[in-house]
Design a protein that fits this description.
Length: 208
């Protein structure tokens, strides 16, 4: 289920959420982190900058912290994997209409990027990941992921999606007992969504 609100975190460093998660993980303080998150949102005016209501900003930031905590918990296992898959969201393509030349393969299901636009985020992520020997899937949602994981024996998975969907995807991946790493979207919506490519590349390089 995607969020019922739109957000744009492109003006906020994702390092902030990573840092909260890192401290929480180091201090085993996840349950006590909620009040820190609340005061950070107020202090850094995250609700004002993003135009979100305070409750929406709180949900979003708590989900982001959860994602980075899960990444920290799974990193060691993930580092030891070699056969990996990368799942990218189709809404991050440069175009969502016929200008995108990606071919949809329903039997997988995935879009296959035809590299029509050098400045397309999905193209850049796909090209880099394939060079690093990842199998890349450009998916319209999480529902096709179990089918893909059943057909292929991956050892590790990387996913890019909005943080609420990533939390759901984590439950799928858990049933396959696979270590995963996630990159949350910094701008959601039905199209022109954004993720941090440098952050994704850092994760793709893990253990390589
Ligand atoms: S580069 Fe790939 S994903 Fe991006 S618009 Fe072109 S075909 Fe679609």
């Amino acid at each position: 289920m995607p969020y019922r609100f739109n957000f744009d975190l492109t003006k906020i460093s994702s390092n902030l959420f990573k840092e909260i998660a890192r401290v929480a993980y180091a201090k085993q303080a996840h349950r006590r982190i909620s009040h820190i998150t609340r005061s950070l949102i107020k202090r850094l005016r995250i609700d004002e900058i993003t135009g979100l209501q305070f409750s929406e900003a709180l949900q979003l930031v708590e989900d982001l912290v959860d994602i980075y905590l899960l990444n920290a918990i799974q990193k060691e296992k993930f580092e030891k994997t070699s056969k990996r898959a990368l799942f990218l969201p189709h809404c991050a393509r440069k175009y969502m209409d016929s200008r995108c030349k990606a071919i949809f393969k329903p039997e997988v299901p995935t879009y296959v990027c035809q590299h029509c636009s050098p400045d397309c985020l999905v193209n850049q992520a796909t090209t880099y990941a394939q060079k690093m020997s990842y199998d890349v899937y450009i998916v319209a949602g999480g529902s096709g992921i179990p089918q893909i994981l059943r057909k292929n024996r991956y050892e590790g998975v990387v996913g890019v999606a909005c943080s609420e969907e990533l939390k759901l995807a984590a439950t799928y991946i858990k049933t396959f007992n696979l270590p995963g790493q996630a990159v949350p979207l910094i701008r959601n919506g039905c199209s022109e969504t954004k993720f941090n490519l440098e952050e994704l590349i850092e994760i793709l390089k893990t253990g390589k």
